[in-house]
Structures are given as C-alpha cells and as structure tokens.
Amino acid sequence: MLFALAPFVAFAVSVSALGSIGALLLGAVASALVILPGVVKGRSAKILEIGSLVLFAALAAFEYLSGARLSLVGAKFAVDLGLLLIVVLSMIVGKPFTMQYAKDEVAPELWSSPEFLRKNYVISAVWGVAFLAMVLAELAMLLWPGLPHQLPILVIVIALVGAFKFTVRLRKPGSATPASLG
Predict the structure, then answer these.
(1) Would you say residue 37 lies in a domain?
(2) What share of residues in the chain are helix, strand, coil (percent, to 5)?
(3) Is the per-residue pLDDT at 15 higher than 70?
(4) 157 has pLDDT over 70
(5) Would 182 be classed as within a structural domain?
(6) Domain that holds residue 34
(7) In the chain, how many domains are there?
(8) What H or E segment, with its residue span, contains residue 145?
(9) pLDDT band at residue 178 under the 50/70/90 scheme
(10) What is the pLDDT of residue 182?
C-alpha cells in the first residue's frame, strides 16, 4: 500500500522546485507508473491508484486550461483533500481502499468475513483521519500565512507516522482472525 502513496511523495518533494503544475504532472506520471506493473501482470488497478491518477491529471489539466496557478500550500491542500475524498468515497461504496492491498496478503477464505471487512474499514478510517489532519494543517497555513510552518508540518508527520504504525500493528500475523478483532 505504501508504494501507492509514491505519487503523493513525488508531488510533495517536487512542488517547491517544479511549481504546482509541474509537480501535479509528475504525480500523474508517478501514478501511471504505480498502476503499470499490476496491469502488465493482468491485475486490475486499485482504487487508490486510479484515484491518484485521476486526481493529479485533473488538477494539472485544471491549472493548464484555466491558467490559474495554485500556491505551494494551495496545491498541497488540493492534493491532500483529493486523497481524503478517495479514502472516504472508497468507504462509502463499501470497498475501503486498504481492502485491495489486504487481499494481496490474506488468505482468500478470509476475504468475505465480517472481521476482514471491519478491519479494513478501521484501517482506512485511521488513514482518513491522518489525511484529514493534513488537510486541516494545510488549511490553517492558507488561512493564517504567518503561522510558523513547523507546526503544520509536525501535525502532518505525526498523522502519517501514527497511521503507518497503527496499520503495521493491526496487520501483524494472526490479527485477521475473528478473536483478534473482537
């Protein structure tokens, strides 16, 4: 799953140097490169991967066609809001985005269990909360430009590290059994 976040990392580390449209295009290319190996192997692309490609391509197209240029923080806000929407929509349609990754690592007989679905809703919700924290931190930077930038960055780092650690802890062997979820 972390590999699927590579386009967001590519965007975040390049936006200062490339500007918003360049970094958005890089994010779109990185998204396509994340999708490609699975498609070549005959697997269907995952919700997060497709959503990332659409998000980056749509934001880049908007900037190019409208002539508008998002600020550094504005671009990060738009991308992270899009990421949050991908996560929330995946849960609304009954396919938490983590479930496709979990199916790659969990025995097929567990896929239809209520515990498996519940665990994926929980993990997806935790990532959703982390992405919401990122969106709110970036919104704070947009609303209060004088805010020390270290504070929102600290919030973002804590949110991502927390979601990652939670996911690792919940994914430990045996944690997909009904007893471990109850």
Answers:
(1) yes
(2) 80, 0, 20
(3) yes
(4) yes
(5) no
(6) 2-177
(7) 1
(8) none
(9) very low
(10) 32
